[in-house]
Structure formats: C-alpha cells, structure tokens
C-alpha cells in the first residue's frame, strides 16, 4: 500500500481518481448491457420455444439495438482499462527512476558493495578451493 498511496494522493491524483471513476462507470454500463443482452437472448429462446414469430423478431430487433450500444461501450471500457494501467505503470516507472537518478544515488549503490555479483563471487570461491589443477573445469570433478 505504501507504493500506491502517493499515486492516489500525489500530484497526479486528479487524473488517477478521474480515470478510476470513469472506469467504474464504464464497468457498471458494461454489466447492465450484458444483463440486457442475456435477457433478450432468453426472450428469443422463449419465443422460439413457443413458436411466436412476432415476439421472436421483436426480441431480435431489441437485441440488435442493445448490441449497437454495447459494442462501443465494451471497446471503450477495455481501452480505458489499458490506458489506466499504462498511466499507473508510467507514473511508477518515473517515480522509481527519479528516486534512483536523483542526487546521484546510483553511485552510492555501486560504492556500498551490498549488491551481489554472482560472477565475481564464483571466481572468488573458485580461487579459494584447495587442490585446484590447471585446466580443471568447475562444472566437472577432476579425473
């Protein structure tokens, strides 16, 4: 939660909250349109089972109208969901890079010696091994 709190309360909070509100509104619309489509497909099935052509064609026309609204709403919802995700990732990347590059902290990280260098550690351990023969490889025992 400590990583996300500055996003919601920082300098980009209006954009973040606006995108979240828009995303929630689109999600509610998407859900309502899905319920309406399910209702109309059920109506079509019932009309077919009852052999009522007029009722069936009314349900088909209504489904097409609902679908005409649903497709753009679905597309816009998925677009906004990805835009919100990209906004968050961009903000997080800038925050970490600004923290890393500010006040030359990358030099402090390299000078501390706290970072594990696997290749250097392997060479150091290999030098300390007793009975090392020239030409022996570390991945197989000497014969």
What does this entry look like structurally?
Helices cover 77% and strands 0% of the residues. By secondary structure, it is mainly alpha-helical. The protein is built from five helices and no strands. Helix 2 (13-49) packs antiparallel against helix 3 (53-101).
- Whole-number mean pLDDT: 81
Describe the biggest sheet?
Answer: none
Percent of residues in beta strands? under 5%
Spans of at least 5 consecutive residues with low confidence? none
Topology:
Layout (H helix, E strand, L loop, with lengths): L4 H5 L3 H37 L3 H49 L3 H8 L5 H11 L15
Helix pairs in contact: 2-3
Keywords:
mainly alpha; elongated
Summarize the structure.
The protein is an all-alpha fold and 143 residues long. It has helices at residues 5-9, 13-49, 53-101, 105-112, 118-128.
